[in-house]
Amino acid sequence: MAEVIWGLATSHVPSIGAAMDRGKTEDPSWKALFDGYAPAREWLAEHTPDVAIVVYNDHANGIDLDFVPTFGLGTAERYEVADEGFGRRPVPDVIGHPELSLHLVKELIDEGFDLTVFQELDVDHGFTVPLSVWTPDPGEAWPCPVIPLLVNVIQYPQPTAARCYALGQALGRAIRSFPGDLTVGVLGTGGMSHQLAGTRAGFINPEFDHMWMDAIEKDPAKLAALSREELIAQAGSEGIELIMWLIMRGAMNEQIRKVHSDYFVPASNTAAGIALFDNRVSQPA
Amino acid sequence: MTEGTPTPIFDGETSRRGFRMNKLFMSLRTEANRERFLADEAAYCREFGLTDDQERAVLSRDWQAMIDLGGSIFYVYKLAMMDGRSMQYLGGVFTGMGEADFLAAMKAGGRRDG
Description:
The complex is a heterodimer of chains A (285) and B (114). Chain A has 9 helices and 10 strands. With 285 residues, chain A is α/β, with parallel strands linked by helices.
């Protein structure tokens, strides 16, 4: 069987990647954010999994509005870094893990999650920035193969928080049923509170974000009960991305141990959060 | 300048309304298309089948109108990037605050009320 060894929740703001790509991580406006990443990065460097799954959304780069998959999974051997208009980020392309991907597709479809399957997909900042948060200096290659799990969050109606949590739980079961010993890291990306358009643009809700950060660890069912409208009201029209953290959380055990978390405002127009959880803790009897 | 709503929702109806305009924005990811667009913006808009209102919004860079006429912020942003405009600039437009005040509000921890 394969085993989820950790979960990493992180914002995927493009400017975080740009700050790293342009050597600005020590600038006054960025230093605190990157200092806040350091403990998580150190722990992750000592706990490299065999494969990682990144739950993310595309931002009009890998897919268009011709078809909007509510949930999609990549089964490719390789994913190119998308050119979002002004050149690709100077980071390695992503090596996939088709064997695990195909297993997950079958298991999840058998559980009633009718996934869209991607044999070709360019991955944008929503995917590569979390990898950079995890591994700031990847060199020629990321630490392990990575599988993209796409979620539609930009066109209403997004999947409900409850459905995302249930997908995460099914994902956890599917990983555990893989016929082979693999260690797996799961990344849930996006958020935290932010809104890009409307007269409410620039909206940040630190009280909600801190509640979310606490509950994602201790009471994810409470978050899964939030309605789409409540999420948009509380976290902003783009803050609804936080539903992707619930997919990560669902794939993990009931009891998890928080290794590190941090919160920083602003990364561009966004409240940036990071939370790293160890999944290898003894469970209640 | 149109009056913005507090929280625009990019739903199915909006996406239908903005479909061709968003297609145009998506096309601007390549240098060749940006050059063609800049050479004759109106012709490029017609090529993509924009409505007259959408064409006017694009040509005059009326960012609020683009959102009102079905633009997704992630798509509209591709045109803004081509113009060298930041998301903070757009925030300044949508809120009526201007870029400098919007940026200052973000640095001070973000906006609460909206």
